[in-house]
């Protein structure tokens, strides 16, 4: 995500801690996750990060740009933490059931933006961009496992399963339940991977 044309290298923290920009984006994610996207304004972000209202505008300009950049950060962090890209089925999505409150704020932001995009209160392109990011990462795992998916339909299926499990995890708050469901998702990956390799060689895998 590009930076505001008015923002320079002075944005970086000299003390090794988070930069002002990072603190502002973390405030956006926190407010959206705890209170809802409708509560994210220049003033609320400024108050949460303990900076001036004008400084928030200096960094992001519009509210839409601020939300877009926060979403970009949230999706990137979530993809890394969840571990969507792997050649080992046993580790696929192993970080999905994280109980971390910061993780939930990131995910709540994404769900909020998707719902608001559908309602038309924010640009739905924001949600599509985040969805496409997840789909692309899942596609890499399918390719690594030898699962053919020319039309992206398996990407969509696996993303739908994971997306639904994230919501259910928030509702039921049971790591054991979520992990058990994830293992069924992995079972499907194993089946598809074995089937693809058998189809390609004419023999069961390992023969």
What does this molecule look like?
With about 210 residues, the protein is an all-alpha fold. The protein has a domain at about 65-200: Tetracycline Repressor, domain 2 (Orthogonal Bundle). Helix content is about 65%, strand content about 0%. The protein has helices at about 20-35, 40-50, 55-60, 65-80, 100-120, 125-145, 155-170, 175-200. The termini are far apart. Residues about 1-10 have low confidence and may be disordered.
Summarize the structure.
With 207 residues, the protein is mostly helical. It is 67% helix and 0% strand.
Please provide the count of β strands: 0
CATH class value of the domain at 63-201: Mainly Alpha
Task: Kindly identify the CATH topology of the domain at 63-201.
Answer: Tetracycline Repressor, domain 2
How far is the N terminus from the C terminus? 48 Å
H/E topology pattern: HHHHHHHH
Q: What count of helical segments does DSSP give?
A: 8
Biggest sheet architecture: none
The chain-level mean pLDDT equals 88
InterPro entries: Homeodomain-like_sf, HTH-type_TetR-like_transc_reg, HTH_TetR
Protein name: TetR family transcriptional regulator
DNA-binding region: 41-60
Keywords: DNA-binding, Transcription, Transcription regulation
Features of the shown structure:
207 residues; mainly alpha; Tetracycline Repressor, domain 2; 67% helix; 0% strand; elongated; disordered N terminus; HTH_TetR; TetR family transcriptional regulator
């Amino acid at each position: 995500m590009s930076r505001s044309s008015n923002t320079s290298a002075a944005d970086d923290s000299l003390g090794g801690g988070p930069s002002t920009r990072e603190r502002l984006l973390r405030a956006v994610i926190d407010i959206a996750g705890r209170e809802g996207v409708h509560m994210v304004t220049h003033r609320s972000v400024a108050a949460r990060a303990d900076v001036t209202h004008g400084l928030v505008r200096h960094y992001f300009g519009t509210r839409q740009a601020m939300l877009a950049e926060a979403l970009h950060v949230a999706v990137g962090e979530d993809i890394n933490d969840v571990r969507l890209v792997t050649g080992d089925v046993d580790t696929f999505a192993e970080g999905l059931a994280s109980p971390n409150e910061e993780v939930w704020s990131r995910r709540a932001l994404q769900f909020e933006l998707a719902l608001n995009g559908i309602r038309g209160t924010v640009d739905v392109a924001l949600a599509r961009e985040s969805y496409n990011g997840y789909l692309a990462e899942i596609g890499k795992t399918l390719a690594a496992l030898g699962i053919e998916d020319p039309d992206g339909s398996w990407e969509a299926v696996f993303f739908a399963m994971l997306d639904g499990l994230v919501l259910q995890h928030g509702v039921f708050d049971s790591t054991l339940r979520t992990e058990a469901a994830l293992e069924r998702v992995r079972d499907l990956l194993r089946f598809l991977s074995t089937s693809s390799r058998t189809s390609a060689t004419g023999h069961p895998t390992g023969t």
